[in-house]
Amino acid sequence: MTMRAPIVVGVDCSDAASNAVRWAAREAALRARPLHLVATMPGTETTFRNAVALQAPEFPDQRYKGEERLSKAHAEALNSAESTRLTIVKHLRFGNAVELLLDESHDAAMLVVGSHGLDQFASGVLGSTSAAVVLHAPCPVAIVRHITGANRSPLDGPVVVGVDGTENSEPAIAEAFEAASLHGVDLVAVHAWRDSHLTTAFTSDPNGVALDWDAIATAEHAVLAERLAGWKEKYPDVAVRRVVVKDRPARQLNAESTSAQLVVVGRRGRGGISSMLLGSTSRHLMHTVSCPLLIVHSPVAS
Description:
- The chain has 2 domains: about 5-145, Rossmann fold; about 160-295, Rossmann fold, CATH 3.40.50.
- It contains 10 helices and 12 strands.
- It has helices at about 15-30, 60-80, 95-105, 130-135, 170-185, 200, 215-230, 230-235, 250-255, 280-290, and strands at about 5-10, 35-40, 45, 50-55, 90-95, 110-115, 140-145, 160, 185-190, 240-245, 260-265, 295.
- The strands form 2 sheets. A 10-stranded mixed β-sheet has the order 5-2-1-6-7-12-11-8-9-10, sandwiched between helices. It has a two-stranded antiparallel sheet with strand order 3-4.
- The longest helix has 20 residues, at about 60-80.
- It is elongated.
């Protein structure tokens, strides 16, 4: 029997990483996938942007600290998953954290990382090179921020997906429907169309007063309906609420995230952003969204 692709989560000593471990454990149990806990420690690989080479023998406590982190994460995962059938594999690796996590991602169904927000991920896991994980991982990447108290995302909230009206949205839509079905919650499909610059695309009037905004809104509703076509038949158990607004996608998705348990977006923006860049919507949500954010790579060529 072939083992299903695992959910991989980065482990360090931060609260954000602990939140990521707990979230990943629940997802792995729900999806019947193994959970791989990965702790990366300074080792023979160069670190600090190649400025310093740390050798494992010079840091005899690194292995102990790494094993300690993995043991703590293992206990958190078991407690959060509430499933004795969850398979957990621990990996202690030495070297550059981003490179090692990306290496693990090639055989993963999902990569999960913790985030403090404000353009800095959990210390010891991603640091200032956080975008590299999102940009280069071939699998979906879930970002779990450290949010406490009343701002925590509800476990019974809906799944929200951003739909940009192009084929780039398809992988994100697929992931969102699956997540909503597995969790038994509604799906909120958001299509914000202000970013398409309609005023310059359809009229020479810079103020756009000649545009028929009602007709445009009707057309944008049709765009969303077209992108969702067929998914309802595949997931008849998922109730879908459609949101079509004249607004910036990041702002509307951020607003929806306050009552959601997960927001799903594609990695590229409208029209296909270069594979070396992260779309403005995804980049903004990484630091502001109120619930876990799942960024899904689109294979559509730029």
